[in-house]
């Protein structure tokens, strides 16, 4: 008996590896190899124009003491500004998306006429490619021809046109607004899916017991959808820490709105400094990995652990 | 404690009428059971009393007060759901206390109440557990505890035992009966299980297709079913029905011809039947005898089911009807052999073609 069981278990493990093999192979080629190559380049002085000839220079791209001065990425104030700006962007946009996503999901979970149509319509911003929606918003926010200035002027809220993208603070808020507009549907969709899994009879019990709906929301709904909410927020946080296309389309390389990704691209492509750009990319990777890890640990999210039911 | 009164209550969902003109008065402290097949509207009727659904017409009164337009929390009710409806992320203690925290009661007061209820239901050692760590019976007790702790005027039970296995169901049934004896609160209990209805109820309401077929004490429904539906529904082994023809009618007696030619004088109260009228004769399997008085039906015994203390024998009557008899163990009936079922006249029921019963004498 025992031998048979073990044989069966071994057979299952072998089958599992067999099914996983294609995925692992593809991951190794499209994720593992570029990642390792980027990390390797970050220790070299490679340049984009000639990737064949480079020297290993150790941690010089990260930090180096040279003729009485600290040099390298970790000593570059522009890099640190990009880091804090990106983290600020992630915190602000993901918080707004969580609240709005919850409101939208609760609304879509209620019963009303044409609910199916509204559920489909709300997904449109999420379905549009970021490049397209960023371009669209760039036009809408244009200081001279933009519909937003036109409308605000017409309503008398503004007395003169605002150059939304010229002021770095305003520009970052514009980026946040566009990001919220685009990705709230995603958060709402994940929360809606969780809401639909909730046990309906608990709500009837709460109604019979006369518990106020607001209290039911905070004491019953929120704890029960917390796992789904945290998954949605981790997805969103990872996305927004990597934010690139939105900012690049809206404000190009403007120093006042650079995110970590935009900074890395500028070093790597515009300045041709593959070594330095790779170092920035590697740090970006580490920052995201650390933040994710701490969120998972702090949220005590048992990924793959026991369910709530 | 309070009485519950339903006056001409109707409920429609879109164009389907689920409850038709239900008129019912449930006395203070009464244990009333709604019973009927699935889809008969019994759960809907309970939800109307609870206020989870609104009536389409008619009115509902609890404790003499019209609550038709009131939300559930103002009706003084507590409900136990079929699926228990416990909050999965709260401990037993939190589940029981959750409904109390609204009332601005102090923490110590709430805790005392929760512990008292837990004590009666033997839940004290489980207070810190989550619902998923409990067995079905324990969860059901928590759900009942959550209802008790609110000290409602009326308890509503929606098929509370149907998710439990058979032995646990009997045990919980006894606990609920004991609970009613000690609390003396009005209880309305919905079930599709007529055994639960018979054992628990002071009064049974038999529902069918949104209508009340009959209301009465369990024994009354058992002895004097008003129509074919109630006769077939009440009784743990279904009543046998045989098509017969009235051959004569004297004072208090209707003579019917059985399939196979035998005649039977069935005692009735009041008016009899017209000679020649097509009737349905009903007799419960536990009243069928293998020998003794009364006319007999002969035919092959098709199946004998052994239940240990007794047997269920199935006999094919001359007209093709399959008759069931509950007979004591050791009766010498063999499958495939001819047999005779005797029908004691006093145990027989007669029904007219429209399904209504001829009143019985006893």
From TrEMBL, chain B:
InterPro entries listed in its UniProt record: AAA+_ATPase, ABC_transporter-like_ATP-bd, ABC_transporter-like_CS, ABC_transpr_MalK-like, ABC_transpr_MalK/UgpC-like, Mo/tungstate-bd_C_term_dom, NA-bd_OB-fold, P-loop_NTPase
Record-level Gene Ontology MF annotations: ABC-type maltose transporter activity; ATP binding; ATP hydrolysis activity
Pfam family, one: TOBE_2
PANTHER family: MALTODEXTRIN IMPORT ATP-BINDING PROTEIN MSMX, MALTOSE_MALTODEXTRIN IMPORT ATP-BINDING PROTEIN MALK
Keywords assigned by UniProt, alphabetized: ATP-binding, Nucleotide-binding, Transport
Domain ABC transporter: start-end pairs: 4-234
Descriptive protein name: ABC transporter ATP-binding protein
GO CC terms: ATP-binding cassette (ABC) transporter complex, substrate-binding subunit-containing; maltose transport complex
NCBIfam families associated with the record: PRK11650.1 (NF008653)
Similarity annotation: Belongs to the ABC transporter superfamily.
């Amino acid at each position: 008996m025992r031998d048979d069981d073990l044989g069966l278990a071994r057979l299952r493990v072998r089958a599992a590896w067999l099914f996983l093999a294609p995925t692992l192979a593809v991951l190794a080629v499209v994720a593992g190899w570029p990642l390792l190559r980027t990390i390797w380049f970050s220790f070299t002085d490679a340049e984009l124009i000639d990737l064949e000839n480079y020297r290993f220079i150790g941690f010089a791209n990260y930090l180096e003491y040279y003729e009485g001065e600290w040099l390298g990425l970790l000593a570059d104030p522009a890099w640190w500004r990009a880091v804090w700006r990106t983290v600020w962007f992630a915190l602000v946009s993901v918080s707004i998306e969580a609240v709005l996503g919850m409101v939208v999901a609760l609304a879509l979970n209620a019963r009303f006429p044409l609910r199916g149509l509204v559920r489909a319509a709300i997904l449109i911003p999420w379905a549009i490619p970021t490049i397209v929606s960023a371009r669209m918003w760039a036009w809408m926010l244009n200081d001279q021809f933009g519909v937003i200035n036109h409308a605000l002027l017409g309503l008398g809220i503004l007395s003169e046109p605002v150059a939304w993208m010229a002021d770095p603070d305003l520009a970052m808020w514009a980026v946040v607004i566009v990001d919220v507009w685009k990705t709230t549907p995603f958060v709402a969709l994940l929360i809606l899916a969780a809401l639909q899994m909730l046990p309906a009879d608990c709500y009837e019990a709460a109604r019979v017991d006369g518990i106020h709906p607001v209290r039911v929301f905070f004491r019953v709904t929120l704890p029960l959808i917390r796992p789904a909410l945290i998954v949605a927020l981790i997805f969103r946080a990872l996305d927004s820490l990597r934010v690139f296309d939105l900012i690049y389309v809206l404000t190009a390389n403007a120093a006042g709105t650079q995110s970590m990704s935009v900074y890395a691209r500028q070093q790597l492509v515009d300045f041709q400094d593959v070594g330095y750009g790779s170092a920035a990319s590697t740090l970006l990777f580490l920052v995201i990995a650390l933040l994710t890890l701490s969120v998972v640990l702090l949220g005590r999210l048992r990924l793959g652990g026991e369910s709530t039911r | 404690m309070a009485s519950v009164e339903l006056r001409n209550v109707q409920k429609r969902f879109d164009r389907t009428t689920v409850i038709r003109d239900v008129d019912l008065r449930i006395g203070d402290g009464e244990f009333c059971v709604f019973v009927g097949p699935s889809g008969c509207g019994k759960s809907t009727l309970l939800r109307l009393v609870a206020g989870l659904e609104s009536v389409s017409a008619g009115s509902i009164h609890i404790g003499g007060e019209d609550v038709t337009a009131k939300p559930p929390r103002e009706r003084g009710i507590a409900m136990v759901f079929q699926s228990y409806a416990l909050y999965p992320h709260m401990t037993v203690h939190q589940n029981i206390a959750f409904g109390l925290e609204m009332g601005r009661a102090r923490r110590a007061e709430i805790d005392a109440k929760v512990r008292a209820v837990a004590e009666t239901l033997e839940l004290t050692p489980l207070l810190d557990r989550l619902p998923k760590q409990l067995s079905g019976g324990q969860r059901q007790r928590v759900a009942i505890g959550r209802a008790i702790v609110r000290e409602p005027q009326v308890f509503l039970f929606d098929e509370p035992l149907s998710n439990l296995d058979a032995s646990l169901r009997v045990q919980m049934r006894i606990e609920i009966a004991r609970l009613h004896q000690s609390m003396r609160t009005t209880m309305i209990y919905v079930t599709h299980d007529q055994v639960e209805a018979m054992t628990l109820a002071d009064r049974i309401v038999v529902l069918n297709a949104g209508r009340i077929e009959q209301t009465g004490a369990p024994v009354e429904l058992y002895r004097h079913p008003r129509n074919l539906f109630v006769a077939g529904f009440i009784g743990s082994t279904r009543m046998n029905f045989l098509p017969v023809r009235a051959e004569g009618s004297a004072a208090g007696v209707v003579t019917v011809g059985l399939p196979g030619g035998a005649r039977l004088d069935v005692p009735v109260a009041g008016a009899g039947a017209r000679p020649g009228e097509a009737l349905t004769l009903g007799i419960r399997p536990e009243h069928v005898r293998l020998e003794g008085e009364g006319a007999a039906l002969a035919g092959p015994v098709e199946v004998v089911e052994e239940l240990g203390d007794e047997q269920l024998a199935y006999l094919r009557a001359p007209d093709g009807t399959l008759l069931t008899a509950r007979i004591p163990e050791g009766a010498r009936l063999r499958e495939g052999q001819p047999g005779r079922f005797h029908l004691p006249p006093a145990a027989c029921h007669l029904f007219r073609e429209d399904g209504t019963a001829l009143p019985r004498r006893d």
